[in-house]
């Protein structure tokens, strides 16, 4: 494919992705009110555990509730469209791969979706409750009155941030397929990866305590090491393929 043919293909994949996101958004808006009650459960439990008298969330503008439902529907639409968007990404990069590598499409889409949901679940069940528990422990002579919109913004940073961070093995998989990184390179630069992980963890951690930051860093380090293993499998597959081709050529 020429450069302009690549641009046409990229435009096609982007348009398809936007169409799937639009469909996901329509579904998300239909169920956003029900999902919102589930989404606010961690903060309501944290308020109850902190012995706060008023455990109801508030909104401070006439459009507060409507804005919240629209935003929840938008993010839910992104999550629902994720498998289809990943499939479009795969269709764009697949022409540059061998035939046996293109057969990994199901693994790519399934792993990407599963890792995103795992990251969001990690945030919902562990990182978010820990963050809320720490923040509500600093009350002083004040009465917490939490805006549901501000809570949602903070929670989305945690859930979406961790969902995207959990895509690290997929990113390493793609880079290894194209020979951009190798297991040796990733291992030799492990200390720089730890530094970058620390910066990312500090960016998505809404608190200042070291324990919560370590909770965010731990899965990133594990995912990086998992990515090294994925890169090693890719390199082994490439060597095996090269040996088969050389053997066939010699024959």
**Radius of gyration using CA atoms only:** 22 Å
Cα end-to-end separation: 31 Å
Give the helix/strand class. Answer: mainly alpha
Q: What sort of overall outline do the alpha carbons produce when their principal axes are compared?
A: flat
Helix count from the secondary structure assignment: 10
The oligomeric status of these chains comes to single chain
Description:
The chain is mainly α and 251 residues long. The chain folds into two domains: 1-117 and 127-139, no CATH class; 167-251, no CATH class. Helix content is 80%, strand content 0%. It contains ten helices and no strands. Helix 2 (41-49) runs parallel beside helix 5 and helix 7 (168-177) runs parallel beside helix 10 (210-250). The protein is flat and about 75 Å long.
Summarize the structure.
The protein is 80% helix and 0% strand.
Features:
251 residues; single chain
Task: Set out the fold topology.
Blueprint lengths: L2 H37 L1 H9 L14 H30 L5 H4 L2 H32 L11 H18 L2 H10 L5 H6 L1 H15 L5 H41 L1
